[in-house]
Fold this protein.
Amino acid sequence: MNKAVSIIITLGLVVFIGIIFTGGTNRAQSVEIKNGLQYITINAKGGYSPQITEARAGLPTKLILKTNGTFDCSASLVIRSIGFQEILPQTGETEIDLGIPKAGVPILGVCGMGMYSFKVNFS
Amino acid sequence: MPHKYIFHVSGTHCAACKILIEDILKEQDFIKNVSIDLKRKTVEIETNNEQNAEELAQILTIKIKPHGYALSVEKTTEENKKDDVIWKAIPIGLVFLILFFILQKSGILNFGIGGKITPITSLIVGLIASVSTCLTIVGGLVLSLSAKVSQDEVSDTKTFLLFHTGRLISFALLGGLLGVIGNAIGINFTFTAILGIIASLVMLWLGLNLTGVFSRNHVTLPGGIFQKVFSVFRKIEHKTFTPLAVGFGTFFLPCGFTQSIQVAAISSGSFLSGVSVMFAFALGTLPMLVLLSFGSASFAHGKHAPLFFKSAGVVVIGLGIFAFLAGLAGLGIINPLFSI
């Protein structure tokens, strides 16, 4: 194989890897406000969805993580800013109290191995 | 009166090559003595009668050619050849990486397994885990260690058997232990994340080694601590105990699937059920890992060994970088850079 051809192929492949990593699939947001409480639901299975959620600041907020036959990394959730580290049940809902979030301070959740993450922005 | 010849030898990628070439050449009746200098890549041959050096080189090359070696009077332009191999290896390695990440992203592996965890379900979870993101760390480590062992050693089969046995036994025993003492030893996230980072560094180092970025036996790394850790690692690499211990250590490597099953073992509440759940899981991961280690061994002894080692090196470096960045993100040191 020609060296120049190889280099061009290599560059193409590197760009492709970049596209794979950055292209996220974002599904519908699910933020609900009921009786003055804000509920943010995030599905945890083979990653978190939605990956980015926009929510309101200044409201008592609960984060609900839904698992459904989740065995992969997204079941072992770490949210450092509130000191949450737990392995979620394989199937079920886990409610996490976020208190009253301030505007501009996002909540960042990652799985134990760090390859899946989600972010909730408050404004 | 004996006659001495010195030839340049190409294709020597491992310490075992020396033994193999010497054995083959010694089988020839007219050869009295053979000695190989791996560092200089030269062969010194003593024969009974005088011959034309060029002809002798040709005759002997025919004998060792099936194993991927060649003798020549003149030093072949090795540098150019090396470059070619690495430029082939990089795209090959990248293609494998892309296939792997596409597989992850496709979500094929995310089908649910409902209900209670039985040994059967944990076997299936193990099968899925062995081709999932867990392959980044556990598989990457197995691939890099296997390739390295095949490169250095003659008896790689024994090493692999020990590794896989160690892995199966330790999963069963630790599973049983989790069943008995339950929550007393919670699985510590920070601990596993740090282990993951160490594993990714080992992978990066082995990967660089496999691609031959550093010339053989002259691995120089900046920083004294690294060098110390790795020299210890190299020393213990070949003993019987080490593959067993590394197999044991894979229990603690960060892998979401392993952690889920560990939790299941904890909640199982008895030694036997803990054993059966964890053992079934390890058994499920076995086919893929065996394929990786013995597959790399069979390539390592074939004609395309240099290309295989370099491609494997590229794959391992890619997985290592991925695991390293993910590990840092998991510890909260950097923001997650990517999502798959």
